[in-house]
Amino acid sequence: MVNSSYCLQNISKLIALFTVLSTLTACNTTTITSSNSIGAESPLPLVAPEEVGMDSERLNRVTTAMQDLVDQGLLAGAVTMAARDNKVMHFESVGYRDIEAQSPMTNDTLFRIYSMSKPVTGVALMALYEEGKFKLSDPVEQYIPEMKDLQVYTGTNADGSMITEAANHKMTIRELMSHTGGLSYGIFSQSPVDSAYLAAGLGAAAAAGILEPNETGKDFVRKLGQIPLKSQPGSQWEYSVSVDVQGYLVEVLSGQKFGEFLEERIFTPLNMLDTAFYVPEEKLNRFSQMYVYDQDGALTASEMFPGADYTSLPAFESGGAGLVSTATDYMHFSQMLLNGGELDGVRILAPLTVDLMHRDQTPKAMAESALDQQGTAFGLDFAVILDPVEAESYSKGEYYWGGAAGTWFWIDPVEDIVFVGMIQVAGPLTPDVRGTSRRLLYQAIMEPKGI
Predict the structure, then answer these.
(1) What is the pTM of this model?
(2) Which end of the chain has fewer CB atoms < 10 Å from its terminal CB, N or C?
């Protein structure tokens, strides 16, 4: 069982510890608020909050809170977007996309969404599930022989070498999708297995979607297959590289490159015009600068991971962390899920498949639910709220995730709400934007559906 440091709000803080910073200077954080227009290409209309049972003045507190964080120097800028009943009632930008260049944050800004790539990968894999390509109970090694006969770490010999034993069962695709397969990320805890991830370039590099030049998903699973599992499959939840394995599994099952499959089956059908594994030259002027905090707590421009490059298509298309996107694109994706797999007449998944993804998938062998976060479990590439009181939330069945650079979203099937938030900052001072925005969004609901 993982401890509370694995909770989502701490992930970006942990990753940031691995960033090497040089001598840094504080930045000017004067703010600008953009208009709340939505692109004509979006199938979701922009309406007054009152049309969907919300109070405009109260809802404006979300924007005010984001502006306050900019004014405090904790954020360079932010984009927040919310929809109810398939209608956008909030879409605002504050601050700067690039402080030094004095480029204002705009609603069409592109962001590194890091682990918000994971739900997209899960949807891609489940589209193949619907075609009968696999069962969730199938062993991963049935389709990826590079991960056959994995051993499990049990201890260390006097010379420092790992003691291993055979797995008590083969890791299943269900375990792969619920972070209970025995894999790790190599960067959130210390063990010989984690050290082996780092030595193989599968730790922070994989979290950033970075491998050695010209290495592909096949190279990734080949390296991974040479490292023992950290725990017996199905025995504990640990945030891991498993979604990168899922991305390669999509390639194996579909016979297509992962990015091509995503473009054909998800991005183009959902009008996700700006979501990809890199930012083309003509869109670089909309790409947000990444920020970390210097030793004095001031924002400074820096990628989280040395070597990160978003200007060309990478050989390794990371299903766990590689995508860039916009608030509008991710809203389309999330609204599709809330609608039971369909948006604007285009169906991506069946309703029961979407429902399966946000059910608690905790293996029976585990004594507790997944995240060691009160009232919260894990489904197939989503966290799921089982008890809103324990989770300090509002609706049972809310599902969500976030990214290491601060992006976040949630889907509420009770109140029929989707919220997407985009920032680009990492480090120990990163504010709890998810918790803040959630409280301020729900206090604006005047016509609740859940009571």
Answers:
(1) 0.91
(2) C
237 with 337, same domain: the answer is no
Give the DSSP H/E element, type plus range, for residue 342.
strand 342-343
Q: How far is CA 252 from the centre of its chain?
A: 23
Expressed as residue numbers, the domain containing 343 is 4-117+259-442
Residue 223 lies in a domain: yes
Q: How wide is the angle at C-alpha 355 spanned by C-alphas 351 and 360, nearest 5°?
A: 170
Q: Residue 107 contacts by C-beta under 8 Å, 6 or more apart in sequence? A: 34, 35, 36, 37, 38, 79, 81, 91, 92, 93, 326, 327, 328
CA pair distance 119, 258, nearest whole angstrom: 14
In a domain, 126, yes or no: no
Distance CA 408, CA 423 (A): 9
Q: Is 252 helix (H, G, I), strand (E, B) or coil?
A: helix
**Residue 99 to residues 43, 105, 299, Cα–Cα distance (Å):** 32, 9, 9
> Which tens digits make up the pLDDT trace of 388-403?
999 999 999 999 999 9
